[in-house]
Amino acid sequence: MSRDSSILVIGAGPVGSVAALACAQRGHPVCLVEADHRINDSPRASTTQPPTLEIIAGLGLIDEYIAQGLVARVFQFWDRPTKSLVAEFDFERLRGETPFPYVVQTEQHKLANMSIARLRALPNAQVHLGMRVTDLEQTADRVVVRAVDADGAHEFVADYVIACDGGRSTVRKALDIEFEGFTWPERFLVITTRFDFQTAIGCSLRNYMAGPEEWTNLFKVAGDDLKGRWRAVYNTRPDESDAEAVSDTAVRARLARCYAEGADWEHLNLYNVHQRVAKQFRKGRVFLAGDAAHVNNPIGGLGLNSGIHEVWDLADLLDRVIRGEADAGLLDAYERRRRPLNIEYVQEQTVANKRRLEEADPARREARFHELRTAADDPARHRAFLLRASLIESARRAETLA
Ligand SMILES: Cc1cc2nc3c(=O)[nH]c(=O)nc-3n(C[C@H](O)[C@H](O)[C@H](O)COP(=O)(O)OP(=O)(O)OC[C@H]3O[C@@H](n4cnc5c(N)ncnc54)[C@H](O)[C@@H]3O)c2cc1C
């Protein structure tokens, strides 16, 4: 049986598209297969941290990426019930640490689409949309992947597989890898609106608004027309039904509680939120990356960023092994560093971010606000807070973990 590609990437979300482009740009025959006929453009992640911007620059996409998004230099913490600013953190304090002392808010489907456009221009890359992977098996020297499309069943043969097929990963299940962790009892509701919160309340482009019963994670994105949209993410009550959460009355009330009285909305997205990490990030020649390997709550904008860091790292490891510059043992480094980094910098951080927003005990709530204020006011603590929140600390740790 002949090989179709040296690297097969499953799933053309942002992580899989970047994985495929990174491997193809290193000169390897790459095949990207995606179950859907088009890239999912529902409102999901957008916050792109400085180390991820460095990777996007490495892919040659940075100008286009910034042009399709919004540059956000600061982020703010608010006490929502009293409509008061608690603390502001300014990425400008990281100048010298990174060429990108800011985050860029660019919707994730734009990254997938621009990566796929570049892939299609490369002679060593194939992209198959509408091709759903159903199963795979591996031997000592290859992986056979079975898939179906409108024409029927297909088989792909590759040296290595990178599975970026999302939180419900078919590949992770086929490999019988446990997805350890838990699901939060409440769901998150994303309301997309043209209401201009910045003009109305003087907030920044990225805001975390704490509230003992309900909090709001509020940020602005460019939108496909670049005219600007706000996304307001709320927790629902655990006992609130889906129908109730998306009802006009409840949505209107949620917007009003966040100072957008009478505002209209364009889109609603209600979803379950998990904190889970795959027990293994690799089995033989198959690697898990992005949401296939880990899922987390979106507060802080970390999950997708960590997925992109993973595949950038993996593309380099595979490149060195395929070229014969290192033996296959080098590939063990992937799980050895990526799994603990996700647990420490993404899982622990996003759980802490959520707890900070939802704290209900008045004394503990005030203590958290005090901690934020004093960190923002102290230059060394301000920088330290940002280095962790931006994943720069995680990226540096990765370099020290063999
Ligand atoms: C509903 C929802 C809302 C979210 N909102 C936010 C948010 O507000 N902020 C935030 O930071 N993060 C958010 N996230 C998380 C963020 O979107 C993910 O971290 C990000 O999408 C991960 O990218 P990925 O490429 O790993 O996976 P995905 O984007 O899930 O892409 C996986 C791809 O694999 C494809 N695929 C699946 N199975 C197969 C198969 N068998 N064969 C071939 N292809 C397959 C899928 O069609 C999909 O295109 C949200 C996630 C969800 C699910």
Describe this structure as you would to a colleague.
By secondary structure, this protein is an alpha+beta fold. It has a domain at 5-73 and 103-180 and 275-357: FAD/NAD(P)-binding domain (3-Layer(bba) Sandwich), CATH 3.50.50.60. It is 37% helix and 29% strand. The chain has helices at residues 14-25, 50-58, 62-67, 108-120, 170-174, 197-201, 242-245, 248-257, 303-322, 332-358, 362-377, 379-389, 392-400, and strands spanning 5-10, 30-34, 47-48, 70-72, 74-79, 84-90, 103-105, 125-129, 132-138, 143-149, 152-163, 179-193, 206-210, 216-221, 229-235, 267-278, 282-283, 286-288, 294-295. The strands form three sheets. Strands 1, 2, 8, 9, 10, 11, 17 and 18 form an eight-stranded mixed β-sheet that branches. It has an eight-stranded mixed β-sheet with strand order 6-5-13-14-15-12-16-19, with helices on both faces. A three-stranded antiparallel β-sheet has the order 3-7-4. The chain is globular, with a radius of gyration of 21 Å. The mean pLDDT is 96.
